[in-house]
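Q: what sequence does this backbone want?
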């Protein structure tokens, strides 16, 4: 496609965690015309408001990064809400993209869309070979359906819709609210609080589960590269290709925060999905490779967290 410098790009969720990093990367890639539909102006679950958004903003490209989501605690208590919000937003936005003749639609799915017991490393063609992890199954199914919608609209209407599947993300600007945060942010918050209060660090599960952690800025770079260079009908994993256990993650975070207390594992709480690791070869086809190591990314994230919480 033409240079992004000639396009108006709409980023749903552009003020959120990943969305804000996508905004930064779009500007770095020369895109000067970026618009963000604010929730106060448009409820993206409502057909008439989605149509109003397309009429008002007139985008050439839509990157759909908005989502209702959270960590294990949030997913376990919001199955219905997450299913409704994410299914409805995705379907209304892609239908609007068709109706208003958008040039390209980029849908962001989730690692949660994969089956619980998918063969590792997970390949895109195995997405439907089983049911998602039960703690986040409703959210995962909604994100799986969005990928199918991209293929269906491409096949029937010729809409250039692509689906991207990011792994577990972390980094500056993440949500550190323990009721909603994902693994890395939750552990950093718990560690800093335990350090401050002189208490033990209590971690959910056994620590045996593994994840593939990706620095959000790297993920945003992959999304913009795909926006520029990928036009295929198959979904694409966005990750690092490096697997880390929760125990290893906790050890690294306690080291980088200088936490000296005890670490206690609450085995009564779920581990979630046993393993997560992507085959990332397809993303290499459009020139992407993650650059930020987990240690360096965690160091930057912890420093950002400290700076953002000065005086609190």
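A:
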């Amino acid at each position: 496609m033409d240079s992004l410098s000639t396009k108006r790009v709409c980023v749903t969720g552009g003020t959120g965690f990943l969305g804000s990093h996508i905004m930064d990367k779009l500007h770095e890639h020369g895109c000067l015309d970026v618009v963000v539909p604010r929730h106060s102006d448009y409820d993206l679950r409502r057909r008439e408001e989605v149509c109003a958004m397309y009429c008002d903003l007139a985008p050439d490209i839509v990157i759909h990064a908005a989502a209702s989501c959270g960590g294990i605690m949030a997913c376990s208590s919001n199955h219905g809400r997450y299913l409704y919000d994410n299914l409805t937003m995705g379907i209304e936005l892609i239908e609007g993209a068709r109706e208003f003749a958008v040039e390209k639609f980029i849908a962001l799915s989730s690692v949660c869309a994969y089956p619980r017991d998918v063969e590792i490393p997970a390949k895109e063609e195995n997405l439907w070979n089983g049911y998602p992890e039960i703690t986040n199954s409703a959210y995962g199914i909604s994100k799986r359906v969005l990928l199918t919608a991209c293929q269906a609209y491409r096949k029937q209407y010729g809409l250039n819709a692509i689906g991207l599947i990011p792994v577990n993300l972390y980094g500056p600007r993440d949500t550190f609210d323990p009721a909603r945060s994902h693994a890395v942010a939750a552990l950093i918050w718990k560690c800093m609080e335990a350090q401050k209060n002189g208490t033990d660090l209590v971690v959910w599960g056994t620590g045996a589960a593994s994840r593939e952690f990706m620095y959000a800025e790297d993920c945003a770079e992959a999304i913009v590269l795909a926006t520029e260079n990928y036009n295929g009908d198959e979904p694409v994993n966005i990750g690092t290709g490096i697997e880390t256990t929760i125990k290893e993650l906790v050890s690294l975070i306690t080291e980088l925060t200088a936490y000296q207390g005890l670490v206690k594992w609450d085995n009564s709480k779920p581990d979630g999905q046993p393993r997560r690791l992507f085959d990332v070869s397809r993303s290499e086809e459009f020139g992407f490779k993650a650059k930020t190591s987990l240690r360096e990314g965690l160091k930057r994230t912890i420093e950002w967290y400290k700076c953002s919480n000065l005086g609190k």
